[in-house]
């Protein structure tokens, strides 16, 4: 039996003084605290003597910057996988996240017709499928070791829900995936045997959530 761990790491805090829903927009980079978060995760993983043999990130700048110190700590080069990218969102570029009352304007109503899909962006199922495909490829390529995949909150959260055989539609306020948190998927051969959640940079995050362990 071969034991493999794939860590899904959310990127660190982003410099976003305008509080824009930046989604896949290029040019959004880590804040100073975001860089500190990434360095903290790198120190935590390397200090624990983890057997990390690959670091692969979403193509977006904030994910690449989060991956860099972790790859450096293990003397690796950061890989890129487009399947780890942020969810597509038709509210991208707006400030609706910070000012939700804007949704009262009729122009946005057609996008809200089905929150279970969701109708305003990439389907939850599509996100989970592409993320799980990336996890499977990383697991097979580096069987018996640990891999860090740097992605984004929503894709990571729906991937966890999918592995736990839960419905993908959810309350965004209840996501357990804070900045620079690790959602660690533990496999024995091809079987998922556990999901571990941790926050090595939690003391730097704006909001904290409790860790958890669950078994498939």
Automatic annotation (TrEMBL):
A Gene Ontology cellular-component term:
cytoplasm
InterPro entries xref list = His_Pase_superF_clade-1, His_PPase_superfam, PGM_Phosphatase
Classification via CDD domains? HP_PGM_like
Secretion signal, residue range per the UniProt entry: none
Q: What is this protein called?
A: Phosphoglycerate mutase
A single Gene Ontology MF term assigned here is:
phosphatase activity
């Amino acid at each position: 039996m071969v034991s493999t761990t794939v860590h899904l790491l959310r990127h660190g805090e982003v410099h976003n003084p305008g509080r824009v829903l930046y989604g896949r927009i290029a040019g959004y980079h880590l804040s100073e605290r975001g860089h500190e978060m990434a360095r903290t995760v790198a120190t935590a993983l390397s200090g624990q003597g983890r057997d990390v043999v690959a670091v692969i990130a979403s193509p977006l700048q904030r994910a690449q910057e989060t991956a860099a110190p972790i790859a450096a700590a293990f003397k690796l080069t950061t890989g890129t996988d487009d399947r780890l990218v942020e969810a597509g969102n038709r509210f991208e570029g707006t400030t609706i996240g910070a000012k939700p009352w804007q949704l009262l304007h009729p122009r946005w109503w057609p996008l809200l017709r089905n929150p279970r899909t969701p109708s305003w962006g990439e389907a939850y199922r599509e996100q989970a499928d592409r993320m799980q495909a990336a996890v499977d490829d990383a697991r097979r390529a580096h069987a018996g070791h640990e891999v860090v995949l740097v992605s984004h909150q929503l894709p990571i959260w729906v991937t966890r829900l999918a592995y736990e055989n839960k419905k993908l539609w959810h309350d965004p306020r209840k996501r357990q995936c804070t900045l620079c948190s690790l959602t660690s998927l533990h496999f024995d051969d091809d079987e998922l045997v556990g999901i571990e959640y941790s926050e090595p940079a939690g003391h730097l995050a704006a909001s904290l959530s409790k860790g958890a362990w669950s078994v498939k």
